[in-house]
Amino acid sequence: MNERTESPSSAPATPSATQSFTEEAARDAALAAWRGMRIEQVKAYHQGKSSGAKLSDFAADKALSKIEGELSRYRGAGVHFEGSPRLTARVTAVDVKAAPQRVTITECFDTTEWKAMQGSKSVTSANQVRRSTVTGSVRALGTHWKVVDYDVDKEHAC
Are 136 and 103 in contact (CB under 8 A)? Predict the structure, then answer.
């Protein structure tokens, strides 16, 4: 299984989907889309808004709605984020025979160094779960692979 730890800095290029990906190519394309979504998500959360971030290049459907909804709630509360989460994503399932082709990704989302801020004051709760398991669905959509949904499991720390 592919496992990679990333530090969000710049969005990777997402390989274009073709008629049919091999399992290895699907893994690589899905991980690139996942990393791209996370990098753009961190950028948007630092700004407190999605303008300027390329979220829709890497996320669609429920995944994009969840991020936009969180951003809206944080913006309404005057919250932005500083620092960066530690991201460890790995492919846990690949279905290249499905239409569209799909990949499942499991990630340890560690927010220990990612702080919620109101102005210059940290508003990160001391009781907040800092390491969550995230499971996501990535699909070949049109000519790109995009994250279409994800679920955060705060009950099982990673």
Answer: no
Q: What is the pTM of this model?
A: 0.85
CATH number for 22-153 (one of 3.40.50.300, 1.20.1740.10, 3.10.450.240, 3.40.50.1980): it is: 3.10.450.240
- Alpha-carbon distance of 158 to 154, in angstroms, equals 9
Residue 10 contacts by C-beta under 8 Å, 6 or more apart in sequence?
Answer: 39
Q: How is the beta sheet containing 79-83 ordered, strand by strand? A: 79-83, 114-118, 121-122
Contact between 11 and 58 under an 8 Å Cβ cutoff? The reply is yes
pLDDT, mean over the chain? 88
Q: What is the mean pLDDT of residues 115-142?
A: 93
